[in-house]
């Protein structure tokens, strides 16, 4: 029980937010808030069923199964390894803004990226883990993880033969007349 006597005119006793004497509560003295209620957690043991499954003509592909740091660590290699699939997907997206139009191409990109990450884990697991954990611990900033990045690059270029920059073309930072547009499309 809480007795509110802040006002000289009304002194009511409050029980669970109601006045015992059905009096209005005095100014500056509010009734106590009720205790929060208990809600049990979801303990469903049945697997999740997607309420909007994809059509049967779209091939199934498993998710990559990594978080943002491992994806960011492998991003440059995914771009080089899956270039054809990425280009095909981007051309498809340019043809039609409808998301359903390019589901097959998107699945191919996902399958290629998952395949590359499996290969990276098989051949360069220690350096890959060191690099993505460095990214995870340093707010995903590349400049703070250059040493593990060099080791990862060496391992990937040797074991997976993903090519580096072409030797017969100038490097990006050496271009004399780079072309920039105000808005990238």
Question: How are the SSEs placed, and which strands pair?
Answer:
Layout (H helix, E strand, L loop, with lengths): L1 E3 L7 E4 L2 E2 L48 H14 L1 H13 L7 H35 L8 H14 L26
Antiparallel strand pairs: 1-2, 2-3
Would you write up a description of this structure?
- This is NADH dehydrogenase [ubiquinone] 1.
- It is found in: Mitochondrion.
- InterPro entries: NDUFA8.
- The protein has 185 residues and is mostly helical.
- Among the domains are: 1-31, no CATH class; 68-165, no CATH class.
- The chain has four helices and three strands.
- It has helices at 68-81, 83-95, 103-137, 146-159, and strands at 2-4, 12-15, 18-19.
- Strands 1-2-3 form a three-stranded antiparallel beta sheet, with no helix packed on it.
- α2 (83-95) crosses α3 (103-137) and α3 packs across α4 (146-159).
- The model is unreliable at 5-12 (pLDDT under 50).
Please give the alpha-carbon distance between the first and last residues: 67 Å
Shape: extended
- Tally of helical segments: 4
> Roughly how many Å is the radius of gyration?
30 Å
Low-confidence segments, ≥5 residues, pLDDT <50?
5-12
Mean pLDDT: 79
Strand arrangement in the largest pleated sheet: 1-2-3
Q: Give the H and E element order.
A: EEEHHHH
For the largest beta-sheet, the strand count, sense and barrel status come to: 3 strands, antiparallel
In which range does the helix fraction lie? 40-55%
Portion of residues in beta strands equals: under 5%
Q: Please tally the β strands and state the result.
A: 3
What class would the helix/strand composition place it in? mainly alpha
């Amino acid at each position: 029980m809480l007795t509110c006597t802040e006002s000289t005119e009304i002194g009511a006793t409050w029980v669970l937010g109601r006045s015992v004497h059905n009096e209005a509560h005095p100014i500056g003295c509010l009734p106590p808030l009720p205790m929060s209620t208990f809600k049990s957690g979801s303990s469903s043991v049945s697997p999740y069923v997607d309420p909007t499954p994809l059509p049967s003509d779209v091939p199934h592909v498993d998710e990559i199964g990594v978080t943002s740091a491992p994806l960011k660590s492998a991003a440059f290699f995914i771009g080089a390894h899956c270039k054809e699939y990425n280009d095909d997907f981007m051309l498809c997206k340019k043809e039609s803004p409808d998301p359903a139009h390019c589901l097959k191409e998107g699945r191919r990109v996902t399958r290629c990226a998952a395949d590359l990450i499996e290969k990276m884990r098989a051949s360069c697991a220690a350096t890959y883990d060191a690099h993505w954990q460095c990214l995870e611990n340093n707010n995903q900033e590349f400049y703070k993880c250059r040493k593990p990045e060099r080791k990862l690059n060496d391992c990937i270029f040797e074991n997976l033969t993903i090519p580096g920059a072409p030797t017969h073309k100038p490097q990006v930072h050496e271009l004399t007349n780079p072309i920039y547009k105000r808005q990238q499309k």
